[in-house]
Design goal:
globular, three-stranded antiparallel sheet, DNA polymerase, domain 1
Length: about 350
């Protein structure tokens, strides 16, 4: 029966195979031809679910744009929004982006907006609500990134920043500890905020950093910094498996403390406010010094970029933790258990107190 029907309709095996291939290339399944798929949810329905899948750092970056989408399109279904609609909202994001000397024409805000929208539609694809071919977020390009205005802060100005933090504010001990942590390790905000007491290897002066993209690494620190990290955790009663950095009240530190630090330092040192200097400048400063002094391989390892760039040579030329410790020893002028320190760049007197 089947054979006779196939012959009468001309649907031989080759024809069926060709039709299946064409449908696959179009992102259409056989079920789509005989029945309607599930309705796409609204932004108001899907965004709360997407939020639950994101890390705290990613959610912090995307949530401004999630809120914008909820304010404007909460009742809109995902399949009712087109590429021009998304591009129009991207223009609004660019035009309303906060402008400072450190911003680059709203490009960063638009890039984060596109990433946030793609995150939503990727979740919809994974749940079968949107076909890849119907996904408008795939068709919206991200803006080309402009070059950063950051540069390595000269040692004299870095000393001024550390002094301003240590002699002002309502918790100078905390602020000095934060700056010292970032200067020594070149870690990001997320890495510092994720640090926990049980991430401290006191004997070897190592801390375990968890940063963006799920990357992790053991990072050498000076004996002075390790001593102050341990003391801070004890005095502020940080539980072993919870956040280490805490306010005097014992409450966990938040991103707002970083903003507070730089606003205050900018009020004392006007050039800090004028240039929009932030914590990431400390990472830039340390890594620039490491690269100039010890070369790209050690700088990549110091930054936690072992698996990135470096070309073909970078596959073979990798620095280990002992080389990172040696660079730290020169940076701080303190001997590290994993290396010796023949010279000094950062005066130990600038340590956390």
């Amino acid at each position: 029966m089947t054979t006779s029907l196939d012959r009468s309709s001309g649907a031989n095996a080759e024809t069926v195979a060709a039709a299946r291939l064409l449908l696959s290339q179009m992102g259409i399944s056989a079920a789509d031809l005989v029945a309607d798929g599930p309705c796409a949810p609204t932004f108001g329905e899907v965004i709360p679910k997407v939020r639950l899948t994101l890390t705290a750092g990613t959610l912090r970056t995307y949530d401004t744009h999630f809120k914008r989408l909820l304010n404007v399109w909460s009742d809109h279904r995902l399949d009712a929004v087109s590429k021009p609609d998304l591009e129009g909202m991207a223009r609004v994001v660019r035009d309303t982006a906060r402008t400072t000397r450190a911003t680059r024409g709203g490009g960063g805000a638009v890039e984060n907006f596109v990433s946030a929208v793609r995150c939503i539609y990727r979740y919809a694809e994974e749940n079968g609500w949107i076909r890849p071919s119907d996904n408008p977020a795939r068709k919206v390009p991200k803006p080309t990134r402009r070059g950063s205005h950051r540069y390595a802060i000269p040692s004299g100005q870095l000393a001024e920043i550390c002094h301003a933090a240590a002699t002002s504010g309502n918790d100078p001990e905390l602020d000095s500890l934060i700056l010292r942590l970032h200067i020594e390790t070149a870690c990001r905000r997320g890495g510092a905020l994720a640090l926990r007491p049980h991430d401290l290897d006191v004997d070897q002066c190592l801390i375990y950093l968890r940063e963006k993209g799920g990357t992790t690494r053991w990072q050498p620190v000076s004996p002075t910094l390790m001593r102050h990290l341990v003391q801070h955790a004890e005095e502020r009663h940080a539980p072993k498996s919870e956040q280490l950095l805490r306010y005097r009240s014992g409450a966990p530190l938040t991103d707002r403390r970083y903003d507070h630090i730089w606003v205050r330092i900018g009020g004392i040192l006007p050039w800090v406010a004028v240039q929009g200097i932030s914590t990431h400048w400390l990472r830039h400063t340390t890594l620039t010094w490491v690269e100039r002094t010890f070369g790209p391989a050690v700088a990549r390892a110091y930054a936690g970029h072992e698996g990135k760039s470096g070309g073909t040579t970078g596959t073979y030329v990798k620095a280990d933790i002992c080389e990172v410790a040696a660079a730290l020893s020169v940076l701080t002028g303190e001997q590290h258990p994993l290396a010796s320190a023949p010279a000094m760049l950062l005066n130990p007197d600038q340590s956390a107190r």
